Automatic annotation (TrEMBL):
<dbReference type="InterPro" id="IPR027417">
    <property type="entry name" value="P-loop_NTPase"/>
</dbReference>
<dbReference type="Pfam" id="PF00005">
    <property type="entry name" value="ABC_tran"/>
</dbReference>
<dbReference type="GO" id="GO:0022857">
    <property type="term" value="F:transmembrane transporter activity"/>
</dbReference>
<keyword id="KW-0813">Transport</keyword>
<dbReference type="GO" id="GO:0016887">
    <property type="term" value="F:ATP hydrolysis activity"/>
</dbReference>
<protein>
    <submittedName>
        <fullName>ABC transporter ATP-binding protein</fullName>
    </submittedName>
</protein>
<dbReference type="InterPro" id="IPR003439">
    <property type="entry name" value="ABC_transporter-like_ATP-bd"/>
</dbReference>
<dbReference type="InterPro" id="IPR003593">
    <property type="entry name" value="AAA+_ATPase"/>
</dbReference>
<dbReference type="GO" id="GO:0005886">
    <property type="term" value="C:plasma membrane"/>
</dbReference>
<dbReference type="InterPro" id="IPR015854">
    <property type="entry name" value="ABC_transpr_LolD-like"/>
</dbReference>
<feature type="domain" description="ABC transporter">
    <location>
        <begin position="5"/>
        <end position="229"/>
    </location>
</feature>
<dbReference type="GO" id="GO:0005524">
    <property type="term" value="F:ATP binding"/>
</dbReference>
<dbReference type="InterPro" id="IPR017911">
    <property type="entry name" value="MacB-like_ATP-bd"/>
</dbReference>
<dbReference type="GO" id="GO:1902495">
    <property type="term" value="C:transmembrane transporter complex"/>
</dbReference>
<dbReference type="InterPro" id="IPR017871">
    <property type="entry name" value="ABC_transporter-like_CS"/>
</dbReference>
<keyword id="KW-0547">Nucleotide-binding</keyword>
<keyword id="KW-0067">ATP-binding</keyword>
Length: 230
């Protein structure tokens, strides 16, 4: 498996008043293309900070982040924004759907940043919704969908641009167990059958079992890596 994400000596420090808070400490990490990684660890361990750095939502204090041959740590804010729109799909705990838009229009949103015409945007959004099992819900608004269905719309929106990488921050944290298992099964299918590389933060050991690898962080350092029977 070739390397997609290469991280070397990564640090992240925040200024909180007069105090410097060290979140990540000299982290080294490789993630292969087609991998499904679960990031686990106690609150404050640096999971979400690392996820945001890999997704280009934040910049490191020092160190290197290279994704698919591109150095994120050398990019300007504008370059990072363009890189994210081309290469990363995001799935969050609370869906972040636009309540006044249909499922179809929500999924189309990332495509508004491209040069695609209206017809092509619609076709791609329909395909993405079919892929997540919501081909019959294209005209429904978020308040007409269950929590699990709303998260499926969010996943369709994340994959509609065919990104290199899916970044998932507690994607099942707001769902009941059955809905959570359906979403995790969908992510596993996207990984296994469609080759999507996925990095997922979760507190749930059962959720982590759907991944191919689990990385454990504690106090900003990588303390354990485990491969699953996959």
């Amino acid at each position: 498996m070739s390397t997609l994400v290469s991280i070397r000596n990564l640090t992240k420090t925040y200024q909180r008043g007069p105090e410097k808070v060290h979140v990540l400490h000299g982290l080294d990490l490789d993630i292969g293309k087609g991998d499904f990684v679960a990031l686990m660890g106690p609150s404050g361990s640096g999971k979400t900070t690392l996820l945001n750095l890999i997704g280009g939502l934040d910049t490191p204090s020092s160190g290197e982040i290279e994704i698919d041959g591109q150095r994120l740590d050398r990019m300007s804010a504008g370059q990072l924004s363009n890189w994210r729109s081309d290469h990363v799909g995001f799935v969050f705990q609370f869906y972040n759907l636009m309540p006044m838009l249909t499922a179809l229009k929500n999924v189309e949103l990332p495509l508004l940043l491209t040069r695609l015409g209206a017809g092509d945007r619609k076709r791609r959004a329909e395909i993405a919704l079919q892929l997540v099992g919501l081909g019959d819900r294209v005209k429904h608004r978020p308040n007409e969908l269950s929590g699990g269905q709303q998260q499926r719309v969010a996943i369709a929106r994340a994959i509609v641009s065919d990104p290199t990488l899916l970044i998932c921050d507690e994607p099942t944290g707001d769902l009941d167990r059955q809905s959570a298992e359906e979403i995790l099964g969908l992510l596993q299918t996207l990984n296994r059958e469609h080759g999507k590389t996925i990095v997922m933060v979760t507190h749930d050991p059962k959720a982590a079992e759907y991944a191919s690898h689990t990385l454990h962080l504690d106090k900003g350092t990588l303390v354990e890596q485990a491969a699953h029977a996959y």
